């Protein structure tokens, strides 16, 4: 609920003078005030008294001035009396006077007309009586119109102030500073890069102080200015002439590379057969190597040396001597060198262990001879009966001899017998 303003147009809470019209909030305390409070009778009579005084002043001024010379005329009445009539324009009527008063009031408010306390210009027409009669009414109309205008302006101002207080207004934000508009510029070529001056490479005289080379025609060093008059000038070798003490440089790196490549090739040439043989030995089984010729130191007529290499075990070779037959041998020869791996020996008259009708070899010496005449001796001890396997690995073999050194079950009526001899390897 709004509060009523005082008769003087002040806020009843804080005493601040308000706009004087409409409802709005006080600018200081924020109280909603009704500023349209009716003025007191004294305040209402003040404009009318001011208007009356102004009209009286105008009448007195017009009467003092009198009629202008040659501006009056006489008018005959019906009763025979003459009445002077002003020759100028007729005095304004009430509406015209009100309009004139409004214009003069507007001029006073805008500051263009004469001041309120100054002399009022005399009216141009008529006598003072007619002018004095119209002035009070015109003054009251002008004062009333001025009061209405002031009240309307105050009401509008109050409404705007109240609306500003009720509706939140965002704070004024400063415009963001951006890049200002600029005119397009002309393309400017890049500035050339300035390089420091560099002395040309020279050779000839070496400065004894700083070690910089100088041309032979220089008398002072180009670096530190040292005199070069007493320095020995070295003569450059002519074209095609090598300096003294020169010797050709040996490209050791290239030599080492070539030597390494040759070593690899030679090693591959020597190792290739070995590698091939090892691969074959690893992935292939030994094959039988039947001899091309057999012989013996001595043999029984019924049991020759060929019986030990016939591939069957029911025939045998006999030494033809009783006892252990020490020194007797059985020999096999090959027409071309072979790679011997193992020898299988079946001692006795047969492969049956229980067959002990003849003596069996115990200590055997195997003599292996290669194609170049080199011999290798290997000694083996055989078991009494059964098939015996003897490992005798050797390459380039052309002859194998088995020499009996002792025997099992030797007697005067028995001879040493070997039922079968088989040799395996790679031909």
From TrEMBL:
<feature type="transmembrane region" description="Helical">
    <location>
        <begin position="255"/>
        <end position="276"/>
    </location>
</feature>
<keyword id="KW-0472">Membrane</keyword>
<feature type="compositionally biased region" description="Basic and acidic residues">
    <location>
        <begin position="49"/>
        <end position="60"/>
    </location>
</feature>
<feature type="region of interest" description="Disordered">
    <location>
        <begin position="35"/>
        <end position="159"/>
    </location>
</feature>
<dbReference type="InterPro" id="IPR057561">
    <property type="entry name" value="NADase_transloc"/>
</dbReference>
<dbReference type="InterPro" id="IPR008979">
    <property type="entry name" value="Galactose-bd-like_sf"/>
</dbReference>
<feature type="compositionally biased region" description="Low complexity">
    <location>
        <begin position="38"/>
        <end position="48"/>
    </location>
</feature>
<protein>
    <recommendedName>
        <fullName>Zinc ribbon domain-containing protein</fullName>
    </recommendedName>
</protein>
<keyword id="KW-1133">Transmembrane helix</keyword>
<feature type="compositionally biased region" description="Low complexity">
    <location>
        <begin position="133"/>
        <end position="145"/>
    </location>
</feature>
<keyword id="KW-0812">Transmembrane</keyword>
């Amino acid at each position: 609920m709004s509060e009523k303003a005082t008769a003087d147009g002040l806020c009843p809470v804080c005493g601040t003078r308000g706009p004087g019209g409409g409802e709005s909030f006080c600018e200081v305390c924020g109280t909603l005030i009704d500023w349209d409070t009716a003025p007191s009778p004294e305040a209402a009579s003040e404009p009318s008294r001011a208007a009356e005084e102004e009209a009286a002043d105008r009448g007195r001024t017009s009467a003092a001035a009198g009629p202008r010379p040659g501006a009056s005329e006489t008018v005959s009445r019906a009763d025979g009396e003459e009445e002077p009539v002003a020759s100028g324009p007729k005095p304004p009527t009430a509406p015209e006077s009100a309009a004139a008063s409004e214009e003069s009031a507007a001029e006073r408010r805008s500051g263009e007309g004469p001041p309120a306390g100054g002399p009022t210009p005399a009216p141009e027409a008529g006598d003072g009586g007619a002018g004095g009669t119209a002035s009070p009414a015109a003054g009251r109309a002008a004062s009333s119109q001025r009061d209405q205008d002031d009240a309307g302006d105050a009401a509008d101002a109050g409404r705007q102030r109240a609306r500003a207080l009720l509706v939140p207004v965002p704070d004024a934000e400063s415009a963001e500073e951006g890049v200002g508009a600029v005119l397009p510029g002309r393309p400017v070529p890049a500035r050339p890069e300035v390089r420091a001056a560099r002395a040309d490479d020279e050779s000839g005289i070496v400065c004894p102080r700083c070690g910089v080379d100088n041309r032979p025609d220089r008398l002072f060093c180009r670096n530190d200015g040292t005199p070069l008059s007493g320095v020995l000038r070295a003569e450059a070798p002519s074209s095609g002439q090598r300096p003294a003490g020169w010797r050709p440089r040996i490209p050791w790196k290239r030599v080492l590379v070539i030597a390494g490549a040759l070593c690899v090739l030679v090693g591959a040439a020597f190792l290739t057969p070995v590698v091939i043989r090892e691969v074959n030995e690893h992935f292939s089984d030994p094959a039988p190597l039947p001899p091309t010729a057999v012989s013996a130191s001595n043999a029984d007529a019924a049991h020759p040396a060929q019986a030990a290499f016939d591939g069957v075990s029911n025939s045998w070779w006999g030494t033809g001597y009783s006892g252990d037959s020490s020194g007797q041998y059985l020999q096999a020869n090959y027409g071309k060198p072979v790679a011997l791996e193992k020898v299988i020996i079946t001692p006795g008259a047969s492969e049956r262990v229980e067959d002990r009708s003849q003596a069996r070899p115990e200590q055997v010496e195997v003599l292996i001879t290669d194609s170049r005449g080199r011999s290798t001796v290997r000694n083996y001890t055989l078991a009494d009966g059964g098939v015996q396997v003897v490992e005798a690995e050797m390459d380039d073999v052309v002859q194998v001899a088995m020499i009996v050194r002792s025997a099992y079950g030797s007697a005067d009526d028995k001879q040493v017998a070997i039922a079968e001899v088989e040799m395996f390897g790679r031909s």
